[in-house]
Every structure is written in C-alpha cells, then in structure tokens.
C-alpha cells in the first residue's frame, strides 16, 4: 500500500513540475514591405499581462514564459495591429510581419512634412531623433537642446559670446539665421532672440526632433535655407505620466525639471516647468567667466479638448525668464572695484501662445487651423552701451490634407508678421516691421512600388521685398533588399534683419538699421542626394549606412560692413556664399550594443572675397564615434568627437581637437540615477589660445572656435512614480 501512495505522490510532483516549466523567448518584428527590423513595436501577452518593446534589431525578449499556447498582440504606430497565437516552446523562430496601416490619419505624422506616411515612404530626407535618444541628451545637458543638435552630423553650435554664452545653430556651414527653428510646427524662435533661442529650450517635455537639411521653404516659408529643426512636444495619454529630473554639476550648476500629463475622454493637459541656476564659472582662473551667472525659469502648460474621435483642439503657453551675467568674476560677485569693471548682462523674457484646431473630415482628409503669438523682450547691457527692445511675431495658417491609394496632397495658406521695436531712448532706432503672405501646395505620388515623387510650390509675398516663388522636387527609390536613395532640391529666401551672428558678436553696438531701399532679400538654391543601405552581416550583427551629398548657394548674402564714421551697415554680397559637402553615418548593432560612426565634410566658400576663402569658424572635417550599451537596467555611452582646423576672420588657422564623454545610468522601476562626464579630457579654447585679451577693464574677446567650459561632471536623478511600463 505504501508503494502505491509513494507512486501517486511521485506522479503528482512530476505533473506539477511539468506544469511549472517556463521558457525564455525572443519575438522578432519586421516590416512586411521591406523585411526590416521594427524598433519600438510592442509585444503583449494578454493573459499574462506582460509586455516588452522591440530593440533596434526588432527583437522583444521575455523571461519565464509558461509553456503552452498564448495569445499575443503586436502593435506599432502607423502599422496594423497583429493578434496571433503562439506555442511555447517553439521549434521555429518567432518572426512576425507588420503591415503598414495605409493612409489612415492616426498613422505616424511627421509635422515637418505633415505627411501621414512613415519616414521610409517620404522622398524628403528627414533625420529623426526619438524619445530614447532625446532622453540620453537631456541627461548630458538638461538645461537646453544644444547637446541634441551639436552631436548630429553636419550641425555646429557656434558660440558668439563668452560672457553670455549666446549660441547659434549652423547646418552644413551656414549661419544660424538660415535655419528655421520650430516647435510643434510653429516658428517661435529666432530674430531678436537669436543666439539665446537654443539656450532657452529645455528638452524634457519634447517627444522627438525632426531635422531636414537643405532648402525646406515649401511648407514653412522663408528662413529654411540651410534647413529646419522641428521640436515635437509630448502629448497626454490616458495613463498619467510624471517625470522629475534633478541635476547638479561640479561647476555649480543646478537644474530641476518636472513634467506631468493626463487625459480622459474629453480633456487632457500637460504641465512642464524648469529651473536652472548657474554660478559664474572660471575654470582657467583668468578672472573672467566661461559660464555666466544664470537664473532661468521656464513653464509650458497645455490644455487639450477632444469633442469627438475626429477632432482635437489644444492651447498652449511657453514662458521663459532668463538672466545671464558674465564677464569679470570680481565685478559679478563683489561689484565694481578698480580695473574690475566689465560685465555683460542679458535679461530676457519670452511668452508665446499656440492654438491648434484639427479635424478629420473623412477617412483620408483632414483640416487644420493654427495660430501663435510670440513676444520676446531682451535687455543687453555692456559697459557704456545698452540694447533694449521687444519683438512680437504672429503666425496664422490653415491647411487641408487628403490622400488616396497612391497620392497625398497638402494645400494651405498662412500669414506671418514680425515687429521689432527698439527702446525709444536708443540713439540708433532699428525698428523693423515685416508682413508676409504665403500659399503652398505639396504632393507625394507613388509612381510604383519602388519610385515615389514629391513636388511642391510655395508663393510668398512680402510687403517690402516682393514676391518669392519657391518650387521644390524630390524623388525616392527604394527596394526590398534594404537599399534606398533620395535626390531633391529647391529654392529659398530670407528677409534681412539686423540679427546676424556678426552683429551679435559686437552686441549690436553702432549697427545701423536695415535700409530696405538698398538691401535685397537673400535667395538660395540647393540640392541634396543620399543613399541608404541596411542589412544584417550575421544573425546577430546589424549594419546600416547613409551617405549624403549636398550643395547650397546663397545670393545677395547679408554682410555687415564698417563705414567711414565708425558705424556698421548691412549690404548685399556681390557674389555667392557656396556650401558643398558630404555626410556619412554608419551604424553597427550587436545584441545590447550599438556603435555609431559619422563624418562630415563641410566646404563653405565666400566667393565674394578675393581667393574664395573658407568661411571663418567652420571646420572642413568633423568626425564622431558613439558606443552605447543598453539593457533593462543599464545604459552606458562613450563618445568621441573630432573637430578639424578652422580659420578665424583674420585668416589665422586654429588647431584641431578631440573631445570625449562618458555617460553611466542605472535604471530602476521608479526612475534612474546617472553620472555624466562631459569633455572629460578638458579640451577648451584657453589651452590653445587666450579667451580674453587686455586691458582688464575693457577686455577684447577673440572669436570662439572650441569649447570654453571644458570638463563638466554632473550627477542626477530621474524620478518616474507612474506612467512607466511594468518592470518585469
């Protein structure tokens, strides 16, 4: 009898052990059209309430999945959701294909192109920076977006002032005024804010960046000669989200960011606030600040209303108070004393509103109306000179989108106004008003499965500078073997104003107003060509390469020339500014490792000067390497960037240099902790040449061609109490 009881017990134990068997599995998701790995797709086990997101190789990994039959759901924005059943364990590789969701309006929308198509089906070349990479750059620099842009191939962040830190973006060697900065499709930055714009946009509430290089004036009008950068904000989901980031640097800089969002059936909202304090920082002890004393506060509330599934209205505000004091450390900390007299103070206030109404008219058509009003007040003070003024910009647009099986259309019209009003006490009155009306049409047409054509035409009319026709064309070829190529070009223009890098370098002192009777608008033409290839070298090693070639020429370039009486006036160049070059981007992936390599060749010639010299402060050769390790718990990144030799305005050749950075982050269920070593080899301009020249009481500041702040060490904490995926 005991033998039978023992046998029954053994059988029961065996059954229980068999029932408890589990497996570690990988599920791969690829696109149906190109058989390419789909990063960011969600794989969800319904009964287990367990999910994961695919990595760069399109693989979602799961541990301890019970053996047996399971129902899974695979989804990705812009693709049809797949529901299927799998058997665990499986004798076959678990690979699933997702089909693109056609022209449904809830598919991926790139605001910079306003298309409902995914990136791979748009002839315009777009560089997309998603939430994950933005998160990494926010850790490296939580105060502003300069880090995001600086580390993109072919983009240079040109500092124009040591004392205030003013910085302009340069794409492909062209000045910052030729790049249009957008937020959610609104042109809110530039003009009087100029070199402060980049410094006053914190990154934590941004969802993605869209960068288009080359003329992009068809959809957004004047100013996008070198390209455009569109920053897309986070929007609320039904699940509330709360992000808190606290950062401290060894250079005595403290930053706090907080973002909260939530929505229900009819209403949603998001709240964002940022505070930054930096003590004046002088790493080489020369008595002058390399980082100004800064107090900066930003807020950005938004309210969303969803009257139906087809209609959305939202209203937002952006507000910033920013005060920067740089110069003589003794003067900043203790007040004027003997030769300690020089300071530069930038006090600015920004307030802008955005309103958007968008409705889906039917399954393939939509209507959108949007309006923004932007106010910027800046007071720039240096010894014996003050520049004080306000600029108000407005932007209003209505557009209509429609799509069919093979073609997408967008047509629209807009009105842009700009009004700069200098303080009435100023000796030189540089007031300027501009009004521009525009109408545009853009078409994307599928010639075949492999060829897609995009054409566009904008017609702008400025009340002072006249009519600007802006045609544009792009052609895409793609196949199912991982190869694609794009070629495109168009025209652009820029309405002249006094806010150039040259004028900002001298603090706008003695700069005469634009004489609209003698100065013409700048005009441009450009051409881009690129090829892309993506494949798998082995089952575990992925490889992709993108090679870009470009040409941009600017006629009537705006120059700031001196006069006989010590003043400066704007004139048009007698010949072209001609920029040509190439960009190479290579990516390798292996399991949790990613390796990015990039190289930019930038050859920007000033053909209006004898000998057609290279544009000052523009390195011909730039290269970078980024190695990333990312797992569920760790994120480690090591960066190396090379900047080649440059020329100063006087023809002097500078030295080349290499900077390095290291990021280490540990993830937890409710947040992360991180340390960042930025420029840890401490490359800064003062190691190559002086940043400040005597006399001490009235110093001369040479042009800036290298980092000025040197090594920055930061530690931080990210808190996410909710709004996270389950940490399985």
UniProtKB/TrEMBL annotation:
Topologically, how does it sit relative to the membrane?
A: Multi-pass membrane protein
Which PANTHER family does the record cross-reference, listed alphabetically? HEMOGLOBIN AND HEMOGLOBIN-HAPTOGLOBIN-BINDING PROTEIN 1-RELATED, TONB-DEPENDENT OUTER MEMBRANE RECEPTOR
Similarity annotation: Belongs to the TonB-dependent receptor family.
Coiled coil start-end: none
Q: Which Pfam families match?
A: CarbopepD_reg_2, Plug, TonB_dep_Rec_b-barrel
Cite the InterPro entries for this sequence: Beta-barrel_TonB, Beta-barrel_TonB_sf, CarboxyPept-like_regulatory, Plug_dom, Plug_dom_sf, TonB-dep_rcpt-like
* A GO CC term attached to the entry: cell outer membrane
The answer, when asked if Transport is one of the entry's keywords, is: yes
TonB-dependent receptor plug domain: residues covered: 119-227
User: Which Gene3D superfamilies does the entry mention?
Assistant: Carboxypeptidase-like, regulatory domain (2.60.40.1120), TonB-dependent receptor, beta-barrel domain (2.40.170.20), TonB-dependent receptor, plug domain (2.170.130.10)
Identify this protein by name.
Iron complex outermembrane receptor protein
Q: Where in the cell is it found?
A: Cell outer membrane
Q: Which UniProt keywords apply?
A: Cell outer membrane, Membrane, Receptor, Signal, TonB box, Transmembrane, Transmembrane beta strand, Transport
Ranges for domain TonB-dependent receptor-like beta-barrel: 295-679
What biological-process GO terms show up in the record?
siderophore transmembrane transport
Task: Supply the source organism for this entry.
Answer: Winogradskyella wandonensis
What does UniProt give as the signal peptide span? 1-22
* Example GO molecular function: siderophore uptake transmembrane transporter activity
């Amino acid at each position: 009898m005991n033998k039978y009881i023992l046998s029954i017990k053994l059988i029961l134990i065996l059954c229980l052990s068999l029932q408890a068997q589990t497996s570690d599995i990988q599920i791969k998701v690829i696109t149906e059209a190109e058989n390419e790995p789909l990063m960011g797709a969600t794989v969800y086990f319904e009964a287990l309430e367990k999910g994961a997101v695919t990595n760069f190789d399109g693989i979602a990994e799961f541990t301890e999945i019970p053996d047996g039959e399971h129902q899974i759901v695979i989804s990705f924005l812009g693709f049809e959701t797949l529901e299927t059943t799998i058997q665990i364990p499986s004798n076959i590789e678990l690979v699933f294909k997702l089909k693109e969701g056609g022209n449904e309006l809830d598919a991926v929308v790139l605001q910079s192109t306003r298309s409902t198509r995914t990136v791979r089906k748009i002839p315009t070349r777009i560089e997309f920076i998603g939430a994950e990479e933005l998160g990494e750059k926010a850790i490296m620099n939580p105060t502003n977006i300069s880090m995001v842009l600086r580390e993109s191939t072919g983009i240079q962040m040109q500092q124009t002032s040591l004392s205030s830190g003013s910085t302009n973006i340069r794409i492909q060697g062209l000045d910052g005024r030729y790049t249009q900065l957008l937020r959610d499709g609104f042109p809110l930055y530039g003009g009087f804010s100029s070199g402060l714009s980049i410094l006053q946009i914190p990154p934590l509430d941004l969802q993605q960046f869209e960068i288009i290089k080359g003329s992009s004036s068809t959809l957004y009008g004047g100013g996008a000669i070198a390209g455009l950068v569109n920053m897309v904000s986070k929007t609320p989901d039904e699940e509330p989200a709360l992000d808190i980031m606290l950062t401290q640097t060894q250079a005595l800089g403290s930053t706090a960011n907080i973002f909260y969002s939530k929505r229900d059936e009819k209403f949603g909202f998001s709240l964002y606030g940022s505070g930054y304090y930096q003590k004046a920082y002088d790493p080489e002890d020369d008595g002058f600040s390399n980082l100004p004393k800064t107090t900066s506060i930003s807020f950005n509330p938004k309210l969303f209303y969803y009257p139906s599934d087809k209609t959305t209205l939202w209203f937002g505000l952006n507000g910033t108070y920013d005060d920067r004091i740089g110069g003589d450390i003794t003067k900043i900390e203790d007040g004027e004393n003997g030769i300690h007299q020089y300071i530069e103070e930038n006090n600015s206030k920004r307030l802008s509103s955005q309103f958007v109404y968008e409705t889906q008219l039917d399954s393939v058509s939509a209507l959108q109306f949007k309006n923004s009003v932007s106010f910027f007040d800046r007071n720039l003070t240096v010894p014996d000179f003050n520049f004080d003024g306000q600029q108000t910009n407005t932007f209003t647009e209505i557009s209509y989108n429609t799509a069919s099986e093979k073609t997408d259309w967008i047509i629209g019209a807009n009105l842009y106004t700009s009004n700069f009003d200098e303080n009435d006490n100023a000796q030189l009155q540089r007031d300027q008003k501009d009004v521009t009306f525009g109408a545009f049409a853009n078409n994307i047409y599928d010639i075949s499965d492999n060829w897609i054509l995009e054409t566009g035409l904008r017609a702008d009319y400025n009340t002072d500078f006249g009519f600007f026709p802006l045609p544009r064309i792009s052609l895409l070829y793609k196949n199912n073997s991982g190869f694609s190529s794009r070629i495109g070009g168009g025209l652009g223009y820029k309405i002249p104003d006094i806010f150039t890098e040259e004028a900002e370098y001298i603090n706008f002192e003695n700069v005469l107003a634009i004489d609209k009777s003698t100065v013409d608008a700048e005009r441009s033409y450009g051409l881009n060509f690129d090829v892309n290839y993506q494949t798998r070298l082995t089952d575990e090693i992925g490889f992709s390469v993108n090679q870009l070639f470009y040409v941009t020429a600017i006629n009537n370039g705006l120059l700031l020339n001196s006069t006989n009486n010590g003043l400066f006036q704007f004139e048009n160049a007698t010949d072209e500014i001609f920029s040509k070059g190439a960009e190479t981007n290579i990516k390798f992936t292996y399991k949790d490792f990613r390796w990015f390599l990039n190289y930019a060749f930038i050859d920007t010639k000033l053909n209006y000067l004898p000998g057609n010299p290279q544009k000052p402060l523009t390195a011909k050769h730039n290269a970078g390497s980024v190695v990333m390790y990312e797992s569920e718990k760790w994120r480690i990144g090591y960066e190396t960037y090379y900047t080649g030799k440059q020329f100063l305005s006087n023809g002097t050749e500078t030295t080349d240099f290499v900077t390095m950075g290291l990021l280490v982050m540990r993830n937890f269920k409710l947040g992360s902790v991180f340390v960042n070593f930025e420029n840890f080899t401490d490359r800064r301009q003062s190691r190559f040449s002086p940043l400040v020249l005597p006399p001490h009481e009235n110093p001369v500041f040479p042009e800036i061609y290298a980092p000025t702040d040197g090594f920055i060490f930061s530690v931080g904490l990210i808190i996410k109490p909710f709004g996270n995926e389950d940490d399985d």
